[in-house]
Amino acid sequence: MQIDAVSAMLPEQGDHMSDEQKYVAKGSAHVKVPVGVQPLSVTFVLLPKFTMLAFSSAIEPLRMANQLTQQVLFRWQVLSDDGLPVACSNGVPVVVDGKWSDAKPEGLILVVSGVEPEGKASVALGDWLRSLWRRGRIVGGLCTGAYALAQAGILKGRRFTMHWDNIDAFAENHPDLQPARQVFCIDDRVMSCAGGVAAADLMLKLINDRFGPALGQEVMNMCLLTRRRDEADHQTTSLAARLGTRHDKLLQAAAYLEAHIEEDFDLDACAAHLSLSRRQIERLFSRYLNVTPVRYMNDLRLARGRALLAETDMKVTEVAIACGYASASHFSKSFRKKYGVSPYRFSHFGA
Prior knowledge:
The protein is α/β, with parallel strands linked by helices. The chain folds into two domains: 3-223, Rossmann fold (3-Layer(aba) Sandwich), CATH 3.40.50.880; 239-346, Arc Repressor Mutant, subunit A (Orthogonal Bundle). The chain has 17 helices and nine strands. The strands form two sheets. Strands 5-2-1-6-7-9-8 form a seven-stranded mixed sheet, with helices on both faces. Strand 1, helix 4 (52-69) and strand 2 (74-80) form a beta-alpha-beta unit. The two termini are 30 Å apart. The model is unreliable at 1-14 (pLDDT under 50).
């Protein structure tokens, strides 16, 4: 984040600044928009261990839009639970403007979360967000900010998303809610994005819709982004890119196994589904991935187990069942062999 943007967040400086001084930086590039447009207020609520990349990717396009037009198109404030600086996931503290409980924000309210999101959003924060949404405000979550929206009880029946690394853990704790694996989602005054640079995609959508494609494109140029991803774009590379192959039957087999990760391993069922023989599938995995289907499935299950242990309070036995293992001892033995530490010890690293 640039120094002028950080300075704009300091209450002792902001109290003596005009809007133009606080929100509009000087720059050579210029985009003309109608003079006197109504600014949009954006409130960021930072939760402990929030992701700095998501926060900076969201706030910087707003600053650039102001700089490019030399107008206050966006105002912003940054809040926390107690009004004190918040340490993000890399340990760097960010100064805030005050407590969210003292604020009555207009416009858009975005909760920024990050690693270990379970329990970071209090019941009181959920109540505050729900009351704002019911009064017509737009609320949203960046990275794992959807945890706070779930706490607010406003995600039922709506499309929403969060970072892919947290989706499995979230789904285990909220079985009635299923995040989409999209870059961002907008549904009935509820906005969410996957975090990282996806926050820039969400803000660019906002800028483009509110002030036109010319400004949106120039903000992209300032961010050195060559393409703005659409709402429905996937967060990660395709299965073909991940596996490094375009072999259709292999991709179908891998997708089938991933979709049945919680069930007993049944390669015969996979073969029947694809109209192949068991031996043909084994040859495909060996030739293109240099692993057996059993090893491939086991790696998938262990990766999921590691995510659940890191992001939830689930017991090792519960994680083992959620990952398709018949017993905790089998899961523990496989986990230790792959990661060099027992799941019991791994789950208490952050304690």
